[in-house]
Amino acid sequence: MGPTPIREEVAHIAALLESTPDREWRLRDLAAQVHLSPGHLSRLCVAAWGRTPRAQLAFIRVERLAYLLRETNEPVERCIHTVGWRNHGHAVSIFRRMMGMSPSEYRGLGRRQDPEIPDGSEHIGSPFQPF
Q1: Rounded to 5 degrees, what are φ and ψ at 33?
Q2: What is the pTM of this model?
Q3: How many Cβ atoms are within 10 Å of 70's Cβ, its own excluded?
Q4: H helices present in the chain, as ranges
Q5: Residue 111 burial (10 A CB sphere; 0-12, 13-18, 19+)
Q6: What is the pLDDT of residues 59-84, one digit of tens each?
Q7: Which of 6, 37, 55, 85 lies at a C-alpha separation of 20 to 30 Å from 77?
């Protein structure tokens, strides 16, 4: 018996979340996109991803925030807003829970002290890919 294939509805939701993580998605809106009840969609997503659509959206936002912090010199607040969070404290809390440090601390890890190298030109390795 092999792995269970991901249902088309879950794949569609994954694509929506990946393509528009800055949107204020609500579970009922996502469920309406694939003609399922919110509860049923949530159960399917947990079965496929091991997390709810809301948790998946947070994961995507954290990935993108980490990328922006490594690859740009934009202020942390602007990066947080760019990935879709409106509340700075909430974003920092989620980022800290998933990454083990605040966004500012994470950004600091990628900075070199060498004056020959501009800020952000070298960063720590990460499994996160650009979006």
Answers
A1: -60, -30
A2: 0.79
A3: 20
A4: 8-19, 27-33, 38-49, 53-71, 76-82, 88-99, 103-109
A5: middle
A6: 999 999 999 999 999 999 999 999 99
A7: 55
